[in-house]
Amino acid sequence: MKNRFATIRLLALSAIGLILACRLPAAPAHSTFAIGDSEFLLDGKPFQIKAGEMHPARIPRQYWADRLRMAHAMGLNTVSIYVFWNRQEPQEGQFDFKGDADVARFVRLAQKEGLLVILRPGPYCCAEWEFGGFPWWLLCQSGMKVRSQDPRFLAAAAAYMNRLGRACAAADHPRRPDHPGSGRKRVRQLWRRPLVHGQNPGDGSRRWF
Q1: pLDDT in tens, 112-161
Q2: 20, 131, 135, 153: least buried by Cβ within 10 Å?
Q3: Domains (ranges, CATH) in the chain?
Q4: Do 71 and 63 form a contact (C-beta atoms < 8 A)?
C-alpha cells in the first residue's frame, strides 16, 4: 500500500512538473507564478489568464503556427492543451514525439507567438477522444483497471508522464541563451482530474492531480 501511494504521488509530481515556458519581452530572468488571495500572480503582479483550448493532436502541424497566431490575435495570452497518452505511446514502450505528435515543437511555437501554455497530460482526458486518451494496450493485461490504484496502471502512467516530461524539457529549459523561452518558467498544470475514479472524496482515499 505504501508503494502504491508513493507511485500516485510520483504521478502527481510528474504532472505538476511539466512547467512550460513563454517569452514575454519584459519578463525577468526568473519568473514566478502563484495563487494570491483572490487572483493569480505572475512575477508578483495580478495576472488574468485568457486561455483558449487547442489540441495539437487534432491539428496538422503545418497549421500550428497559424492557429496560434489567430489565438493571439483574438486577445488570448494562454493556450490550454491536452496531450493524449494513446497518441504519444501507441505501442507499449514505443513513444512517438515526431511530426504531429511533437508536443515540444508546439510549445516552442507558442513561446514564439508570446503565449503561455497550460499543458494537461492526463492520463485521463475528458475531450471526446477515444478511450479518454488511454492506450488500447492497457486492456491486453488481464484484469487491468484503468483510473484505479492497479499498480500496473500506475506504473504505465508514470512511465508515460516521465517520458513526456523529458520530451518537453527542451521547451522548458532551453540550452541556448538566445532561445525565446530561456530561463522563463511560466504556467504549471492548474486544472486537476482524478486519477482514481469512483471513490468518496470525503474519505481521504481519492487521489488528484
Answers
A1: 999 999 999 999 999 999 999 999 999 999 999 999 999 999 999 999 99
A2: 131
A3: 2-203 (3.20.20.80)
A4: no
Virtual CA dihedral for 103, 108, 114, 119, nearest 10 degrees? 30
Residue 16: is its pLDDT beyond 90?
Answer: no
Query: What does residue 81 show for φ and ψ, rounded to 5 degrees?
Result: -125, 140
Q: What is the mean pLDDT of the chain?
A: 77
Q: Of all helices (H) and strands (E), which one includes residue 33?
A: strand 33-35
Do 52 and 79 meet the contact criterion of CB atoms below 8 Å apart?
yes
CA distances to 65, 195, 208 from 70, rounded to whole Å, are: 9, 34, 33
Question: Within a 10 A sphere around the Cβ of 172, how many other Cβ atoms?
Answer: 20
Cβ 85 vs Cβ 129: under 8 Å: no
Task: Extract the C-alpha cell encoding 36.
Answer: 494570491
Among residues 18, 30, 36, the alpha carbon closest in space to that of 107 is found at 18
